[in-house]
């Protein structure tokens, strides 16, 4: 058996799946969906920047203090020498480099996928104050310490205070449900019975949404009990249907 | 020659094209793109609500005081009896009813078109304080009076004060350019040389964007001189290329 030619850098946890972050799920779903052979290298938070610099991965943004911000996912394609950061750029790279494998973004939909992500991300943004603190509880010690320290600075509050509680929980959870409901209307625009965004086959927009459903199902089982009833069970059905692409190798 | 079976209700003006509103251009481009035979009935603002009620057109939203808000475009398809309001619903109706004509939203992209409009509309929203006052100056008297009265209430200021001036003009016009530039990135995602959003052929997203370019080119020639240089001349090229679908009948 030959060695996989793609190295996927992911962030570990104590969840049963090890993989937990929605952005990392997006890339993992993408690699599995395309049926590419890859191996995972697990990188704790404090090691992300040194690891990225070592393999020549670009930063994905700039920190408040002006320094480059290195994030995962990153993939390293040993067969082409390419090192790609950022979920969207990875998906575009995989389609461009492996066009004979199932397309994440079918012909003509690359721009639509960017517009979808822009609009959908604004609608689901209330998810972070729920998912981030719950995920931190399951990180390994070095990541847990790093994540708490850096996120408490960027959010300006403790992770415990970040989690919506009481009336704020009711309001924010409803806002999240309204966002998912709006996105469900887009899913239904092509046909009310459609499970997938484009109809017959899943595309990257499906994997993208499912990554958030996966995140809540792992990190907040009680909230997931509610979310899985939303929109006629839409998100639970989608998660189940894409289970075949959730393999962690 | 048979009588056209689609009646298109549009709002007149003193612009050379008569048609002026970006939402009306969307539907006009759509009808021409599909090659459907239609006739225009021109309706002044004070007559929109009575006309809609007369033909059984649904309101498209609710006013601040709770009353239904009737808007154009509306189409009346005499061959099916359907009366449809709202640009997006009209485009969906035309594709569903006339699937053998060129598709505005090609198979699998109905949901993507909704996401595109959601994201793009947020990015181009600085356009209204420019286009609305300039358009009012070219309306016929009854529309001009109605439009000024109702819009000055909804915007909470005179149309003259609505138009950005001085530093605000610089800031808002830049915000609009940034929005168009972001959308241009989506256009380029499928290929840097692509003129059309999905590549080879125009789709409703192209007609949608061009409707705003058309609006500025008609109502604010000085601003258009600047806008047509944006993004390598993208919007001028798109407007020119879709000229064949801008026929006003």
UniProtKB/TrEMBL annotation, chains A, B:
PROSITE patterns referenced in this protein's UniProt entry, alphabetically: GST_NTER (PS50404)
SUPFAM superfamilies (UniProt xref): Thioredoxin-like
Pfam families: GST_C_7, GST_N_2
GST N-terminal domain residues: 11-102
InterPro entries reported for this sequence: Glutathione_S-Trfase_N (IPR004045), GST_UstS-like_C (IPR054416), Thioredoxin-like_sf (IPR036249)
Stated name of the protein: Glutathione S-transferase-like protein ustS
Protein source organism: Favolaschia claudopus
